[in-house]
Write a structure and sequence with these properties.
It is built from 9 helices and 12 strands. By secondary structure, it is of the alpha/beta class. The strands form 2 sheets. The protein has an 8-stranded mixed beta sheet with strand order 6-7-5-4-8-9-12-11, sandwiched between helices. β8, α5 and β9 form a beta-alpha-beta unit. It is globular and about 50 Å long. The termini are far apart.
Length: 322
Amino acid sequence: MTCRICGNGAGNQSYEAKEMMFGSGEVFRYFQCARCGCLQIGEFPPDLSRYYPEDYYSYQPGPPAGRIKARLIGLRNRYAVWSRGLLGRLLYAKRPNPVLRCLWRLRLGTDARILDVGCGSGAGLRSLQELGFRNLLGIDPLNRQDLEHPGGLKVLKRTIHELEGQWDLVMFHHSFEHVPDPAETLLSASRLLSPAGHCVIRTPTVSSDAWEHYRAEWVQLDAPRHLHLHSVESLGLLAGKAGLDPYQVVCDSTAFQFWGSEQYRKGIPLRDPRSGATSLPGALFSRAELAGFARRAEQLNAAGRGDQAIFYLRKSGERRPG
């Protein structure tokens, strides 16, 4: 098995992982590169679309909010993007929005040109639109068709390789691990970035305690949808080949890495009625256990060992914000 990232074929460790989101139990072979650390599926399934049914989470638009709730969500999201507003800060502490919070470091204006790659139904872009952002586009090749939301926000059934133009921000929110061609995808992202633009990738990472502890039962392995699960080293290698500089890496993992993986160890799918993905996970874990998982996640994030991270990239030679 030869690594698709660095070309190494020696000493790579293989694993067998089951499909556990929907609980089919189908087995897929993965291997981890001994050189760059990237964990990758051995062979791509011939039809990946069958593993993304219509009720897959990123396709869901979310329930409509009433007027008061929508106002509170707006204040929370305003804080997430710009760190403004005491009430928004309090609301964010109760119900975070990590999709938007990862943008506050970039100090974006509402005229920023933003491309969201692999955005599903476009929920994150709709939140930005409600904050006044005007130049937004989403793409997702796994969508059934093009979508157009009120106000002219479009989500196209496209790959990043089919786009033109320049963007101030190209972002991948837990979509980069789904692409079969990560090197080519980053090259296209680099091509689309404006000279001072930024690429933001939120993705699970094997540079984490959770991967080292759970291995094939790690919930974020998510066979077979996650095709490449990167280490800090392997993503940095790809970025360099694309002319991008990963100037900052911030872990943003949650308790999910623990309760989800422990659930898989018990043989319980993510979509099981007892699961934390569909109801309160108290059916499987006590409140004390869940609180302990959350504290452990915070500790690992501070130590740079959380199981998901935000990679901030810019064109090589460009200055970072602030």
